[in-house]
Amino acid sequence: MSKAHFGLIGLGVMGENLVLNAERNGFSSVVYNRTFSKTEAFLQGRGSGKSIAGVKNLQDFVKQLERPRRILMMVKAGPATDSVIQEISPFLQEGDLLIDGGNSEFRDTERRVSELESKSFGYIGMGVSGGSKGALEGPSMMPGGTKSSYKAIANLLGKMAAQVEDGPCVTYIGPGGSGHFVKTVHNGIEYGIEQILSEAYDLMKRVGGMNCDQIADVMAFWNSTEELSSYLVEITEVCLRATDPDDGEHVVEKIMDKAGQKGTGLWTVMSALELGAPVPTIYSALNARVLSSLKQQRVNAQEVLNGPEPQRFDLGNVENGMAPLMDAVVMATIASYAQGMELMRLASSQYNYNLDMPSIAQIWKGGCIIRSQLLKRIQDAFTLNSQLPNLLVDPWFSGQVNNRHKGLSIVVAGAMKAGIPVPCLSSSLDYINSYRTSRLPQNLVQAMRDCFGSHSYERVDKEGVFHTEWLD
Ligand code: NBP
Hints:
The chain has 472 residues and is an alpha/beta fold. The protein has helices at residues 13-24, 36-44, 58-63, 79-88, 106-116, 131-137, 147-160, 178-206, 212-223, 231-241, 264-275, 280-292, 295-304, 323-350, 357-363, 374-384, 395-418, 423-435, 442-453, and strands at 6-9, 29-32, 52-55, 70-73, 97-100, 122-129, 140-144, 163-164, 167-168. Strand 1 (6-9), helix 1 and strand 2 form a beta-alpha-beta unit. It binds nicotinamide 8-bromo-adenine dinucleotide phosphate.
């Protein structure tokens, strides 16, 4: 019997779809799942009639793969991934390649790379984005590891990935944990945009008095514009239109207002804080999810804490695409991307990842959750200036910021007066206002630090490090 081209471990939602994708692209496959009944169900269901074989144990799994073996793990991140690596390592040989496609913490990947370096087989930490549909039809993939390991799977990944006008949505990201780092930042940006769209929905509902279908119409309009055309705006419209078959009411209004998270947003913020990258939009999105989970406390607090009654202010109208609100959403979305790109630029230099920013924007243009037309502009901005310190100062993006600043200010001020929380919109406005302010009040912070702790300060009028005896 001829051996399979590709092996997959972990028949969860992602694994199942990725192996069907590989097989469709001409790579005969063998699959292993810890719980064998899932393998059987898959082979009798979606996997039937295809060049996919299933096995009960990892020893048989490796025996059925052609050499050098190409094995993709799609299992739960953390200890489950370590345990699979430990189980399969003794069976791997010179030149074989193990790929972790789960959402692993990039430091775990760094550790695994250094632990496995002494072994003869290659290891790739690869971020995969696109959800189940993307996994099947073509995801965006962010592989990190040695270049030679990447070369061994470039053909396979190039065929499996989403395709956009300038190539497949996969590229070599860099060494070590860089692939998982870039995927983490992708998810951080995603947190930001999801929260921004949710705040826009809340404002249209509570300030504009609009229903789900009317808000969905606005999303459809936004999705037709260059600035907001994106997968997330597209699915926001879909979510808003969906109705409950039992009573015909909108499903979204019946969903509990507690948002979950699996860690990537938290890792983005932790990395940003460590590297000194300001990511207030992404941080606010994470905080918003955390605060939303305190449902019972919020219910109780509403009885005790007063605030202004929600009141109307000018959000625009459906015909003009809710112009000020659209300005606000575009600005905050740009802020979310700008913060993510800046974080990657700093990480690239700190961790020697040598990230190629235009290529990262390119592979996010298709297949992944944050795909959008803006990414073409982001790709162009970093192609024009590979040392761009911040997306906001690129000529096209600064034009957007200057044209839309007023709209964002109106919306944030109105929301504050109406007592409606807009954490991502307001933090994006503060981010942009801070970034464009040449003199911030941190001179006073420095004075206080020197006053209580003799931390010293620099001066604007002469060189050197200074200390004042403030309390004498
Ligand atoms: P899950 O994250 O739910 O993982 C399920 C798979 O992990 C199953 O095959 C399960 O086997 C296996 N597994 C577990 Br759990 N513990 C194991 C262990 N100790 N040893 C061996 N196998 C073990 O499924 P998923 O949603 O397909 O995600 C897979 C990976 O891809 C995760 O890291 C996830 O974060 C990442 N990811 C998910 C998405 C998405 O949209 N869902 C997108 C991008 C990346 P069992 O059947 O025996 O329990």
